[in-house]
Amino acid sequence: MKYRNNNLYVENINIRSLSNKISTPFYCYSFDRLKNNINEFKKNFSTINPLICFSVKSNNNLNILKIIKNFGLGADVVSKGELLRALKAGIKPQKIVFSGVGKTPDEISFAIQKKILLINAESENELKIIQKIAYKKKKKVNVGLRLNPNIDAKTLKKISTGRNEDKFGISDKNFIKLLKKFHNSKNINIKCLSVHIGSQILDYRPYSKMVSVIDSIIKKTKYKFDYIDLGGGMGIDYHLNSKKLDYKKYSLVIKNFLKKHKVKIIFEPGRSIIGNTGSLISKVIYVKSSLKKNFVILDSAMNDFMRPALYGSYHRIIPAIKNNKVIKKIHDFVGPICETTDSFLSLKKYQKVNENDVLAICDTGAYGIVLASNYNLRTKPAEIMINKSNFKVISKKENINKIA
Ligand code: LLP
Fold it and tell me: Is the CB of 74 under 6 A from ligand 1?
């Protein structure tokens, strides 16, 4: 996103003009950004040559998945729906991993039938179910075991997944026990150790600890894994110019690990691929002045974009047209939903805002549209992909008459 003569552009498209053609609110993504993020991610880990499985939960738009597939990425899925969508996008089953604590027998059966690369199991009972289904199907199924390395990823509590108190994965003791118990199974082939310690991680040190826990488990068990799936979680810079994840250091940690262990590394990035490619374009319905504040009431709300309401997360809001008239008063950017938590951002000052102004809520490409709902019986917004001077509707705005 760039300003040209005070007008906001995504690639060569003027956002104010676009909002005259597409009804707001709508998500808009940049193809170029997406391409750059994928290439950057590959470059950061080029010496490791990993299999990169895009985490479909972060954005499951079919068109976006097709683009991602064309850049050679696989998929990390967590439900039958996501698996179907990834397959529909043309992603090869041999590049798909299936994670999650609560896979149903139906989901497991479907994943086996589709011959995906790995089912990453998270409990003994899940292993038993996989074994039972594989036995019935007379198959030997490749699985990963998800380790809970008991590491605090130093991220938001609500998106931390690698501590003992979190529901994910298997503790080191149980991991070793299960490895012994199942390694001779006729229907299960434990090929992978998987981990994922959380999301929006900006410090490489929790990753470094995670890799050393994996190293010690392999040493203890002398088990030969074909794959180590390190999950995703790489954080992005929502604040601009703040702390960034040190990819060089993370990559070096893995390189040193690979000197000792001949395995294929898998990553499951979501946010770092798609997060900063998207923004939610919204129009101002009213500006409501109170004694202390200006409430900027937008036509987008927490049903369109949940992260601020759900996690208190920060997203910049920038105008489609800069007017350089600063008003020194608190500005609360809120949605029309009947909840106080339906609020995106509060700033001490902002440029003068008028009704019908267009604003962009930034970095909403990951965990944006996928978390949208019909709360207050509002329609879910459209999604637009911008590529140079062209734009394409990659998902239509819901039809109010279909949902109401
Ligand atoms: N692999 C597994 C097993 C995961 O659970 C997740 C995310 C990922 C990969 C991808 O993580 P990423 O690279 O995107 O950080 N809704 C929250 C984030 C939830 C993340 C859940 N798991 C948010 O908006 O911050």
Answer: no
